């Protein structure tokens, strides 16, 4: 018999098998097959290497006189290689079989049917089943094992224990060698391809992600990793919503209407386990529930369809789901800006959304939306935040919006939309989020001194910023309660800060909603005259290792230090011996830093504290 094998038959080793049975006298191997195998091997795919090994076996059989092996046809063009999934290479192979008048040997059922339709002789053999059919590393798991970690040249390790009490421990004293790791990795991937219990979630050169039963397995290979590594994870607990605190209240909240929920917590805290419980509850409550996952690893019932990124893009998945119109969608995990955008779009389209987010505090989960979603829309996107810690519900927040004067401010004209974050159980507000002077501020609400200091500090900084935009010299601010401040400025700045008839300071008071009393530094209890010193004051040596003591000049735009004799030198600026920054003296004999920058703020704060400013050779 004269045969022309296609790529599938070569990879499966069916050609040498036919030759050894004595049925084949001549094998004509298309150059298109050789090119495809070479390309796969160059991409690091095992199938390519297996096919090349089969060609070597055919060469050995030809040397032994068991068969005549010929290489015929032409190599594929780049355009044909890129169109392999559309059948371009298969068409070339069929053409070779027709020209040779030979039988086409294939393990590809589509290729077989097309060849028969074109009148070719076809010898179809079932694809070889690869892999063991089971999970070769399953013996490393017991009922307390959440994940197993294997790598070439290391001892096997695992994370074991209860949720919140996991420990990373060695589970076998024998170091795994490269041959064993390759055997395990190959078996895992081939079993996933051939078994109805598994599938390949991701297959890229150097990285594969396999879903097999309730195991999610990541297989990394060189050059992506510095050695073969297998990480297998599975859930060790499946819970019901009844197992959690606030179960009845959360059930009522979820059933009342479609919600926007963020489930947050640290890695391993039990977020996905809680999300599964929510998904099962919603399904049992007659809601249509879908999931969006990459990779898919939530352990949910068959009634819940699990979707991954369509064409690698969750936006396409969202577009498809909007046609399906689920009542609720579980989004695991929401991490990147694009994910938050997809989450918000679906929520605003009326779909109930439950997102899983990494966060170390409950409020941090909500703050991850800031800057990614328009501030005023956040309560429409997320109205509930659930924080999971050690497998239990630690905190639940209710998120609403209200037009009001933010906590800690008093003027009625400061009223604005404020996002209130309240404790779900007590209804007591714990945080407010709002815009203040074009900045988004998250302020804790409460009676502790630390929280009051946060609001006071914010108000003092805003007063200081406004006055510094007017004054040329130093500015110091003291708050006298929530709506009164005393501002100390240089003698020369009094008139410019107050303005004609007090008009300028009145404008500042109206903008900030705070009564401001303007005084000179001499009037400050325990203060002194002089403020910032004379403009343009240069440095004067103060002796030896103490550096040069300088008096910086504060202008409306810069803080400047005169160093006429040190042009081009790199110097360190210190305050009472503490390092502030390093700079190069410009050609004008001056070091300048822009006001409003972090460096300038530190320098001005040091000046206001009357610290000794010195310059030292860098």
TrEMBL record:
<dbReference type="InterPro" id="IPR015946">
    <property type="entry name" value="KH_dom-like_a/b"/>
</dbReference>
<comment type="similarity">
    <text>In the N-terminal section; belongs to the PINc/VapC protein family.</text>
</comment>
<feature type="compositionally biased region" description="Gly residues">
    <location>
        <begin position="527"/>
        <end position="546"/>
    </location>
</feature>
<dbReference type="InterPro" id="IPR002716">
    <property type="entry name" value="PIN_dom"/>
</dbReference>
<dbReference type="InterPro" id="IPR029060">
    <property type="entry name" value="PIN-like_dom_sf"/>
</dbReference>
<keyword id="KW-0694">RNA-binding</keyword>
<dbReference type="Pfam" id="PF00437">
    <property type="entry name" value="T2SSE"/>
</dbReference>
<dbReference type="InterPro" id="IPR003593">
    <property type="entry name" value="AAA+_ATPase"/>
</dbReference>
<feature type="domain" description="PIN">
    <location>
        <begin position="1"/>
        <end position="113"/>
    </location>
</feature>
<feature type="region of interest" description="Disordered">
    <location>
        <begin position="518"/>
        <end position="550"/>
    </location>
</feature>
<dbReference type="InterPro" id="IPR009019">
    <property type="entry name" value="KH_sf_prok-type"/>
</dbReference>
<dbReference type="InterPro" id="IPR027417">
    <property type="entry name" value="P-loop_NTPase"/>
</dbReference>
<dbReference type="InterPro" id="IPR001482">
    <property type="entry name" value="T2SS/T4SS_dom"/>
</dbReference>
<dbReference type="Pfam" id="PF01850">
    <property type="entry name" value="PIN"/>
</dbReference>
<dbReference type="InterPro" id="IPR052041">
    <property type="entry name" value="Nucleic_acid_metab_PIN/TRAM"/>
</dbReference>
<protein>
    <submittedName>
        <fullName>Flp pilus assembly complex ATPase component TadA</fullName>
    </submittedName>
</protein>
<feature type="domain" description="AAA+ ATPase">
    <location>
        <begin position="257"/>
        <end position="392"/>
    </location>
</feature>
<dbReference type="GO" id="GO:0003723">
    <property type="term" value="F:RNA binding"/>
</dbReference>
């Amino acid at each position: 018999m004269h045969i022309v094998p296609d790529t599938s038959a070569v990879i499966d080793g069916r050609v040498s098998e036919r030759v050894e049975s004595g049925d084949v006298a001549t094998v004509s191997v298309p150059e298109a097959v050789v090119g495809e195998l070479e390309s796969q091997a160059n991409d690091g795919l095992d199938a390519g290497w297996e096919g090349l090994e089969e060609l070597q076996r055919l060469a050995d059989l030809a040397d032994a006189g068991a068969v005549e092996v010929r290489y015929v046809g032409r190599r594929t063009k780049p355009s044909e290689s890129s169109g392999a999934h559309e059948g371009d290479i298969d068409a070339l192979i069929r053409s070779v079989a027709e020209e040779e008048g030979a039988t086409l040997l294939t393990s590809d059922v589509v290729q077989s049917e097309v060849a028969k339709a074109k009148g070719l002789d076809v010898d179809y053999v079932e694809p070889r089943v690869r892999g063991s059919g089971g999970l070769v590393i399953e013996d490393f798991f017991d009922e307390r094992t959440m994940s197993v970690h294997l790598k070439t040249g290391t001892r096997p390790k695992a994370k074991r224990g209860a949720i919140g009490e996991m420990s990373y421990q060695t589970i076998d004293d024998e170091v795994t060698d490269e041959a064993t790791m390759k055997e395990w990795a190959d078996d895992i991937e081939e079993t996933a391809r051939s078994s109805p219990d598994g599938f390949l979630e991701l297959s890229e050169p150097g990285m594969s992600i396999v879903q097999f039963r309730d195991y999610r397995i990541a297989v990394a290979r060189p050059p992506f990793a510095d050695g073969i590594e297998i990480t297998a994870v599975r859930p060790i607990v499946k819970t019901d919503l009844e197992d959690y605190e606030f179960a009845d209240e959360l059930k009522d909240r979820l059933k009342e209407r479609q919600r926007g929920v963020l489930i947050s917590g640290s890695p391993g805290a039990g977020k996905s386990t809680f999300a599964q419980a929510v998904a099962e509850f919603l399904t049992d409550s007659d809601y249509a529930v879908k999931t969006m996952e990459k990779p898919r690893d939530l352990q949910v019932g068959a009634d819940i369809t699990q979707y991954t990124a369509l064409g690698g893009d969750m936006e396409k998945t969202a577009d498809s789901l909007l046609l399906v119109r689920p009542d609720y969608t579980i989004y695991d995990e929401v991490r990147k800006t694009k994910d938050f955008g997809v989450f918000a779009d679906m929520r605003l389209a009326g779909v109930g959304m439950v997102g899983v987010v990494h966060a170390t505090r409950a409020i941090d989960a909500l703050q991850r939306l800031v800057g990614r979603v328009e501030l005023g829309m956040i309560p429409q996107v997320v109205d509930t935040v659930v924080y999971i810690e050690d497998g239990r519900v630690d905190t639940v927040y209710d998120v609403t919006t209200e037009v009001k004067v933010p906590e800690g401010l008093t003027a009625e004209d400061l009223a604005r939309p404020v996002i209130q974050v309240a404790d779900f159980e007590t209804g007591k507000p714990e945080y407010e989020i709002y815009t203040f002077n074009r900045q988004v501020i998250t302020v804790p609400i409460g009676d502790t001194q630390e929280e009051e200091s946060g609001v006071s500090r914010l108000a003092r900084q805003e007063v200081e910023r406004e006055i510094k935009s007017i004054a040329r010299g130093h500015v110091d601010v003291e708050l006298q309660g929530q709506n009164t401040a005393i501002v100390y400025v240089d003698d020369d700045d009094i008139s410019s800060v107050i303005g004609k008839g007090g008009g300028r300071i009145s404008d500042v008071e109206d903008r900030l909603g705070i009564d401001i009393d303007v005084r000179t530094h001499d009037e400050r209890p325990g203060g002194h005259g002089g403020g910032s010193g004379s403009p343009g004051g240069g440095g004067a040596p103060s002796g030896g290792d103490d550096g040069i003591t300088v008096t910086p000049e504060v202008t409306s735009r810069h803080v400047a230090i005169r160093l006429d004799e040190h042009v081009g030198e790199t110097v360190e600026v210190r305050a009472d011996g503490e390092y502030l920054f390093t700079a190069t003296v410009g050609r004008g004999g001056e070091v300048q830093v822009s006001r409003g920058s972090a460096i300038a703020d530190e320098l001005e704060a040091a000046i206001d504290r009357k610290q000794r400013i010195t310059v030292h050779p860098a």
